[in-house]
Structures are given as C-alpha cells and as structure tokens.
Amino acid sequence: MLTPVRRRTAAVSLMLLVPLLTGCGIGFGAQTDKVYQPAVGVNDTSGSVDVLNAVIVSSTEGKGTFVASLVNPADAEPDSLTGLSGDAQGEVASPVKIEPDALVNLADTGAVSVSGDRVAPGNFVRLTLAFDSGQKTMINVPVVNSEDPEYAGVKAASPSATPAP
Length: 165
Known about the structure:
Layout: H1 4-22, E1 42-44, E2 50-60, E3 63-72, E4 79-86, E5 89-92, E6 96-98, E7 102-105, H2 106-109, E8 112-115, E9 124-131, E10 136-145
Parallel strand pairs: 2-10
Antiparallel strand pairs: 1-2, 2-3, 3-7, 3-8, 4-6, 4-9, 5-8, 9-10
C-alpha cells in the first residue's frame, strides 16, 4: 500500500509529466507553423492580382494550357491578363478581365496557350504574366500531364493562327 507521501509524490510527478508528454509535437519548429501548399501549382501574391495554383497542363509535348486562378482584391481597380512570356511562348486569346473582389479560373476558359521546348510534364517553365495595370508577375510553373485525373476537366487552349506580338 502507498503511503500518503508516496501518493503525493506520484500525483505531483504525474502533473509535471502530463504537459511535457502532450507538448512533444509542439514547439517553434512544429509543422503547423509552416506554410503548407497541398496542391501541385504555385502561388504568387506579390502583386495586386494574386496568381493561385498556377500550372501548365500539357497533352502534347511542347504545347499546353496555362491554368491558374486570378484574384483581384475588393479595393482594386478592374484589371486584365494581357500577355505571357518567358521560357515558353504564351498567347492570351483575348484579355482576361478580372473585376474587383472576383476570382477568374483559367481552367474554365482555356484562354492561355503555351508552347516551347520546356513544356513537357515534369518540367518547370519560368513565365512572366503581364497585366493591363502594368503588373508583371514572374513565376516558375510546373508542367503536369493532362491525363492526370485532377486535370481531366481543363479546357485545352487553342492558339490562333497568328502569334501574339
């Protein structure tokens, strides 16, 4: 049988150990303190228009569709995506208008075609997005295969007969 002193010692020890044992995963380096992006695409929020989950969906080596969500904050002026340049030739079929406090998903429109040697699943392509407001956003975009189930619904871009200047 335990004596009262041993009981108190055991109770105090248990009270001291419980916070230590429950706090093993918590600290300054815990994973919950780090940015985690579960999607394949890349984000850039440095400009007035945010570029979210940007990827190039490719069904044919050398050609693909640039896909991203473009978000214009509520207190901003209307803006438009007007061009794409970089390691691949990009063509915006017509300026993609982004109203204030709105999100435009390019996967639904298929408005931006991309072509170049680096456009192949597994590669990254350095692109600069040009907006009507003068914003230029540089991002390193992954190229994914259009046969992946996540990208099955992406509308393929169809470049026009004449390349954009």
